[in-house]
Design goal:
The protein is of the alpha/beta class. It has ten helices and nine strands. It has a six-stranded mixed beta sheet with strand order 1-2-3-4-6-9, sandwiched between helices. It has a three-stranded mixed beta sheet with strand order 5-7-8.
Length: 261
């Protein structure tokens, strides 16, 4: 199968699958370019309440396909469409920021290698669940690349400055248990249990108030200048009344607030 991004939507959950099996799901220039548009389309879909990012087969993403990011390599026509070779950092940052800006909960479901650009994409998600045996690494020091400032800050916000420096200085891989201890992972699942747990947890997320989730996402990500906006949204929404009524009536709530397009 060619290198591509696959996607499905079912029961409120959109799933993007990184698929490039010949190179352990490494991201080509075309895949980096396609991701922001795909994410934007899913953000605009009112049927989508949660986004899952995962990899095809036994690997999440082994990073960037370096051969496709050079001006004379695998995708010369596309790379030179604007008269310029692809800028690997700019392509990766654009994809990372698109994921981070997704207005609903995002979850990276990780097996196998989650390295380089793969870790960059996983860090841009709100949550990260992994299967035992997964490996993680932030590897620009192996190539003499300056890791983007925004990506470095995001990594440090997840694992703290000491672990961020450890990963960036050494470019060494760490195991899933260490990634969990460092704070990169939210949950670590036994082999064979990742899909079941992700399906279970995303059903929970899809059933909750999008109003609460959207405000919490902004506040947790450091945007604290919109208190008044979210107070207005809450005042104009029926979610609070519905949540209280559902609790008292011992039934599942039917929340109706949705993000503005």
């Amino acid at each position: 199968m060619d290198a591509t991004l696959l996607h499905t939507v079912a029961d409120g959950v959109a799933t993007i699958v990184i698929s490039h099996p010949a190179k352990r799901n490494a991201m080509t220039a075309a895949m980096w370019r396609a991701l922001p548009g795909l994410v934007a389309d899913l953000a605009d879909d009112p049927a989508v309440r949660v986004l899952v990012l995962t990899g095809a087969g036994p690997t999440f993403c082994a990073g960037a396909d370096i051969s496709s990011l050079t001006g004379d390599a695998a995708e010369p026509g596309e790379a030179r469409a604007s008269g310029e070779a692809a800028d690997p950092r700019a392509l990766a940052v654009a994809a990372e920021e698109a994921l981070a800006a997704f207005p609903k909960p995002t979850l990276a479901a990780i097996r196998g290698f989650c390295v380089g650009g793969g870790s960059q994409l996983a860090a841009a998600c709100d949550l990260r669940f992994a299967e035992e045996g997964a490996s993680f690494g932030v590897t620009p020091a192996r190539l003499g690349i300056v890791y983007p400032a925004s990506s470095t800050r995001r990594l440090a916000s997840l694992v703290g400055p000491a672990w961020a420096k450890y990963l960036l200085f050494s470019a060494e891989l760490i195991g899933a248990e260490t990634a969990l201890r460092a704070g990169f992972l939210n949950e670590l699942l036994p082999t064979g249990q990742l899909d079941k747990r992700v399906a279970e947890f995303t059903r929970i997320l899809a059933s909750r108030s999008q109003l609460t989730q959207a405000a919490a996402k902004e506040f947790a990500d450091g945007r604290t200048d919109r208190d008044a906006y979210w107070e207005e949204q809450a005042a104009g929404s029926e979610d609070t009344a519905e949540g209280v009524a559902a609790f008292l009536e011992r039934r599942a709530p039917r929340f109706t607030w949705t993000p503005a397009p």
